[in-house]
Design brief:
2 copies of one chain form a homodimer. Helix content of chain A is 36%, strand content 22%. By secondary structure, chain A is an alpha/beta fold. The radius of gyration of chain A is 21 Å and the shape is globular. The two termini of chain A are 19 Å apart. The model of chain A has no long low-confidence stretch (mean pLDDT 97). Chains A and B meet through helix 1, helix 9, helix 11 and helix 13 of A and helix 1, helix 9, helix 11 and helix 13 of B.
Chain lengths: 385, 385
């Protein structure tokens, strides 16, 4: 097995728990990759010999970003809807339904090409693990094929049949479909089940039914909740002991306490608030209450078409009260926790060697230099990509 | 002279005045480059033959960005100061003075390497013309060598000796130096003269003295004004008939009227407000009052270390009430006007062929897809770079 040592690392972010700081940073560091995993980290002066050597030139090395929330399987363009929203003018088209119609009309090849393009775009920006949801098919056939497409790119696929109630059916009929034949067709392609628990989408009882049925089919649960207003979703997630609940913009003190008590991770998606001009979630309040936090992109054609975790980190610092270290931790270690993955999100011995080389001396520059494409190199499972 | 035709342009932004829209867009377009200039634009079906052909694959082509405000000649790192500011904690280091000390201590080679790296970084993000200021030297020698370094990369160099009053001198003594020996040493390397007219920096009389002396030495004037609070700078700029005045965050109705009446361009720098958590300037108010607007980066190590005009465009739409078209126009045509340049900022016949290929079908995606590195290719004076 070939060993590669990366030397000259100005700052190595390991995310080792119990390190000298939240990110477990090591300065003037080296990292050894053997095969697909991290074999050694420490001060460069103590690095063991290796077959190959890469010089980081004083730059920072971080774990690859873990993006635990995205909706990449779609077709169609909604840039005009975005422009209208920004101008404060009304727009006749039908939001998610526009994308559903375009997605149903697309071929498998078109969907696969689109997902591949976006996954590649994410990778260039440092994302090495991505979760991808269905949710723009809303028929048994289109949800199953959306997940089959997503599964070509990641193991972290999520069945989101309960995204919105499609035209021509009642909520009751649709939940019966989602928890019955649609779940049966989708479960083989999915690791997770999710529901959009929000006024205008699915209420708590409906969301619970979807998650319970998903669990019976072997899928782990996650939830969209409390994005557009206060609601029961976050408390439902805590009650069900879900690993993560996503959005968490509108939270009562009871919601925050429930997350803290249950150990459920709050996944914050600041690209959405940027792209919809909504108020940002208060990460500071959550962290100070002991809630674990992840940051993800929510990349989707309607409410947030960014794929950039560097931007989300900068927004978390600017708008959500996080320190740069907290934001980077949330986009790496936090994302891994939100996906219940212990093989990624950190650069300690035995972890998968998913890492990025930053064209900057420290992680702070991801917030200090917003918008600048700082990711200079990416390794996945020990190989440069 | 070799002619190259770019075909398959999904949307060509020409900025032709009097076009069907603000950006003078042409759909399904082609553009012909002869030598260093644009020789033809129009519908692809009507494109003349050329020696070489490039297929844009349905992507958008825009004029290269014109960044009319940057401070790239510096040394040192202020990321810790940034992190402290974001955390709301005090920071002992001395702001601009930290950079001045590091810049004075740097060799010419170090400064040149730093500017070259940042200009290259800007170019990868689509900036094809950049203005660069001095202002971290504050001695005759260090200001002159800062400008000599900048001049290696651009003709748009600006003498900003009047950036801040350095330690160990009085404002009166320093203005005498700036308008005397420092100006004499700097004028040969500069096209512009600038002053920071703000409480704590230079008052209106001092700024006027700097601009008047600069004009006598053949330099055109520009001004930093009304960034941190209301003040006389914007009205001074209008009174002196300057082409542009930069920041314009705190404006009275009289300030806005003065800009409109004088035809002075307001250069807005939203990366600063993003990076300092200050309120954004109100571009909508300016545009509605008939003021011409430019957007620039203000790339500098203290208040805004972004080099990304795509991010500034996204911020202008999210935070300043501009449409995507207005923001793109301001970062291209507006920047060119702010530099009194009629050879760049547009893609009409005879203009310099500075252009960028966007990995997206339209300019709207610069705001719709914030943070995503969408610039796929850049041409400067007709050549891919």
């Amino acid at each position: 097995m070939t060993a590669t040592v990366i030397t000259g690392i100005g700052e190595l972010v390991t995310n080792a728990p119990g390190g000298r700081d939240l990110l477990g940073t090591v300065e003037d560091a080296a990292l050894v990759i053997e095969g697909s995993t991290v074999a050694w980290t420490g001060p460069a002066a103590e690095a063991p010999p290796a077959d190959e050597q890469v010089d980081a030139g004083g730059r920072a090395v971080l774990p690859g970003f873990v993006d635990s929330h995205s909706h990449l399987v779609f077709a169609g363009d909604r840039s005009a809807e975005f422009a209208a929203r920004m101008a404060g003018t009304s727009y006749a088209a039908g939001g998610i339904r526009t994308t559903v119609a375009a997605t149903r009309a697309a071929t498998d090849e078109q969907l696969t090409s689109q997902v591949g393009r976006l996954v590649q775009e994410m990778r260039r920006q440092g994302t090495t693990t991505v979760e991808i949801k269905s949710g723009y098919g809303l028929t048994v056939h289109d949800e199953a094929r959306s997940l089959a497409v997503a599964r070509q790119f990641t193991e972290e696929t999520t069945f989101l049949g309960a995204h919105v109630v499609p035209d021509g059916t009642t909520p009751e009929e649709y939940v019966a479909l989602v928890t019955g034949p649609m779940l049966e067709a989708c479960a083989p392609h999915a690791r997770w089940v999710d529901a959009f628990c929000e006024r205008g989408a699915f209420d708590a009882d409906q969301a619970r039914a979807v998650l319970v049925a998903g669990a019976a089919a072997g899928l782990r649960g996650r939830l969209h909740a409390n994005q557009l207003g206060p609601g029961p979703g976050v408390r439902l997630a805590a009650e069900l002991g879900l690993g993560a609940v996503d959005h968490c913009t509108y939270l009562t003190d009871d919601d925050v306490a429930a997350l803290s008590d249950a150990g459920t991770i709050a996944t914050l998606l600041p690209g959405v608030e940027f792209s919809t001009r909504q108020p940002y979630p208060d990460a500071r309040r959550l962290i100070d209450a002991g809630v674990r936090v992840a940051i993800a992109s929510d990349c989707n054609p309607g409410s947030c078409f960014t794929s950039s975790l560097p931007l989300c980190i900068a927004l978390a610092v600017r708008e959500m009260g996080m320190t740069p270290a907290e934001a980077v931790h949330a986009a790496t270690y936090g994302g891994a926790q939100a996906l219940d993955r212990d093989d990624v999100g950190a650069l300690t011995v035995g972890k998968r060697a998913d890492l990025l080389l930053l064209d900057a001396p420290s992680h702070v520059h991801l917030a200090y230099r917003p918008g600048v494409p700082l990711v200079r190199g990416v390794w996945v499972a020990g190989r440069p990509v």
